[in-house]
Amino acid sequence: MLKEMIKKTYRWAQKNSLWMIHYNTGGCNGCDIEILDLLTPRYDIERLGIITKASPRHADVLLCTGPVTLQAKDGLWQIYAQMPSPKWVVAVGSCSTTGAVFYGSDTVLGGVDHILPVDIYIPGCPVRPEGIIEGLVKLRERIAHGG
Amino acid sequence: MLRGILSLLIFPGLAFQVLCGLIFEWIDRKLLARFQRRVGPPWYQPAADLVKLFSKEDLMPEGVYDLVEVLLPLISLSAVLTAGLYIPIAGFTSFSFEGDLIVIQFLMSVPTLAYYLAGIASVGIYSFLGGGRSILQYFSYEVPLLIAISGPAVMAGSWSVAQISQAQLGMGPFVIFQPLGFILAVVGLIGKLKRDPLDIPSASTEVVGGSLTEFSGAKLGFWQLTMNVQAVVGIFLLVNLYLGWLNFTAPLVVVGIFLLECLLMVLVLSGASAIFARLRIDQLAGLGWKILVPLSLLQLGFVILMGV
């Protein structure tokens, strides 16, 4: 009973306080600019309790943009390993979800899901800020249901 | 005995100060958001952040001194909570003695020293840089802050915060006599809290997270709590030293005015962080020693001459 209540409280807190870290694994910077839009007064992601953090040890959500190149592979894995669990990965943009036009290249592995377990895919080239907010809201619902 | 334990744990101790810390953090973030024409976080945001941090895994890199990293946030949190016990809240004092202003100043600088040690003890390069910056910043703001807050003490003829705020009932708020000292104390407080114009030790674009880069989970939660309680204690201290409330008999009015003055201080702090850009560390050291220290000495000399 008490354990259940503590679990519920933790889920509520995790849902309402997502601190995100953003890593570009080799993209064109288009999605990164759209992610910056989230912090502007027009979209203001802080009203959902989401803020950006610079250190992976403070973060809960890893926001990935761009296809995973061979050079960025180890860095991506290290950043994910440095995050304290529970942690979630969001793939932002077509390249990050599938590899898009870079799929099959010698120096590109493909989407982020070649390396990490991805929770939310947000396709688009580049993604609209509304799309990223929609994805993050979906992630919140998922956490609330114990995902 | 029971009374003592209650005042340690509930009012004006742990529960009250943590609650005030969360409320002040929310008001501060909301005000900052409104200054930038944003909506800002909902009212439960600081509590959600804190609970989330305590629910997370606790990671430390290889090679750090485990015990030190656990003890530092706890020591600094208990130091600022202890400092809060000596500060009268709306005229209500539970512990007070002659000279507690000095003790409060000492206890309030414990977190800064712990922050420095945390940077040295965790092995990251960013932590090391943040720690070094925090100690440099400490030497820049602490001297003018100390000289500035000795102004009210000299004027009231006592080094106890309760006595100083009592003295203002007769003489009027000290901010009227020492506006310069008040401004210097606010600048010192911003430096002490590592808030926005002076957030040099934790500037995320330069040193990632400062000393706290390698901290996660419950330890980071305790650091966050320390910062919140430190802000509360600092605001209460300045309100008591400079903005002594008017002489009313109804206790409700006194509490209301005290709250209003605290909110005014939060407004000043978040306004400062909305307006000003971050200084470089050499600019801060120059500002501290070339401008703030002479001004604070001028203010103190003026107060002493006025007493003669």
Can you walk me through this structure?
The complex is a heterodimer of chains A (147) and B (308). Chain A has 147 residues and is α/β, with parallel strands linked by helices. Chain A has five helices and seven strands, in the order αβαβββαβαββα. Chain A has helices at 2-16, 30-37, 70-82, 94-98, 129-144, and strands at residues 19-24, 51-52, 61-65, 68-69, 88-92, 108-110, 120-122. In chain A, strands 2-1-3-5-7 form a five-stranded parallel sheet. A two-stranded antiparallel sheet of chain A has the order 4-6. In chain A, strand 1, helix 2 (30-37) and strand 2 form a beta-alpha-beta unit. In chain A, helix 1 (2-16) runs antiparallel to helix 5 (129-144). In chain B, 73% of the residues lie in helices and 0% in strands. Chain B has 13 helices and no strands. By secondary structure, chain B is an all-alpha fold. Chain A binds chain B through residues 9-10, 12-14, 16-17, 41, 44, 46-47, 49, 53-55, 57-58, 60, 82, 84-86, and chain B through 29, 33, 36-42, 44-45, 47-52, 55-59, 126, 204-205, 208-209, 212-217, 220.
Give the SSE layout.
The complex is a heterodimer of chains A (147) and B (308).
Chain A: H1 2-16, E1 19-24, H2 30-37, E2 51-52, E3 61-65, E4 68-69, H3 70-82, E5 88-92, H4 94-98, E6 108-110, E7 120-122, H5 129-144
Parallel strand pairs in A: 1-2, 1-3, 3-5, 5-7
Antiparallel strand pairs in A: 4-6
Chain B: H1 2-9, H2 14-35, H3 45-55, H4 66-85, H5 100-121, H6 125-156, H7 161-171, H8 174-177, H9 179-192, H10 204-207, H11 217-242, H12 251-275, H13 281-307
